[in-house]
Design a protein that fits this description.
Layout lengths: L1 H41 L11 H15 L2 H16 L9 H24 L4 H33 L10 H28 L1 H6 L1
Helix pairs in contact: 1-5, 1-6, 4-5, 5-6
Length: 202
């Protein structure tokens, strides 16, 4: 019935909002730690490193001087070579395997509707319209766009700016993502309901 359909849609969007809210918070925390590590490596100062026992400090300094020639050389190594070696693992690129996982979840849901339409005897044009607007348009292109956008925003706004109300930033990011997905999905549905040409344009 119509009420059941609306409930399903609202439940799906609610689940999307909550799960992506957690993902956004985790991504921001991850990028915050990476930015902190970059800063610490750039500003590394061996003289600021403390040891519980003076013997340990003396031993470590002597080992560093033996391996690197001097404390200054080791400091330069950490600031330059070590930081550059770690940079690939600190890159802000969205992991491709996670993008594939997200797409797989969306495509599997849409495929259920597609198969039901096909078994129900839907005309070829309707099946093609659904494939273009929903499977390709939303599940692939919109999902990719949203993933890249969320990755950029969580990196750009990773720093805490509102103290104890830092979660406001997470809320704003996921609200933007959810709104974009909602209107993109509605536009795709409207294109599908309209004509094959509109699906191609979408």
């Amino acid at each position: 019935s119509g009420n059941e359909y609306r409930f399903t849609i609202y439940f799906a969007y609610g689940t999307f909002y909550v799960l992506n809210g957690f993902a956004t918070a985790l991504l921001r925390s991850n990028y915050r730690e990476k930015h902190h590590l970059r800063r610490e490596l750039r500003r590394f100062d061996l003289n600021q490193v403390s040891c519980m026992h003076e013997f340990d400090r003396t031993f470590i300094y002597s080992a560093i001087s033996k391996w690197y020639g001097s404390k200054e050389a080791f400091t330069e190594f950490v600031r330059q070579d070590l930081r550059q070696d770690l940079e690939p693992s600190l890159a802000k690129r969205f992991p491709f395997k996670y993008l594939l996982l997200l797409m797989a979840a969306l495509v599997s849901t849409s495929m259920e509707f597609f198969v039901a339409m096909w078994k129900g005897g839907a005309p070829f044009e309707s099946l093609l319209s659904f494939a273009l607007a929903i499977l390709l348009g939303v599940d692939v292109f919109v999902a990719t766009c949203l993933s890249v956008t969320m990755n950029y925003l969580t990196d750009r706004f990773a720093a805490r700016r509102f103290g104890r109300f830092d979660h406001v930033q997470t809320f704003l990011i996921i609200s933007f993502i959810a709104a974009f997905f909602y209107y993109s999905n509605n536009l795709a549905v409207a294109a599908y309901a309209s004509s094959l040409e509109h699906c191609i344009l979408f």
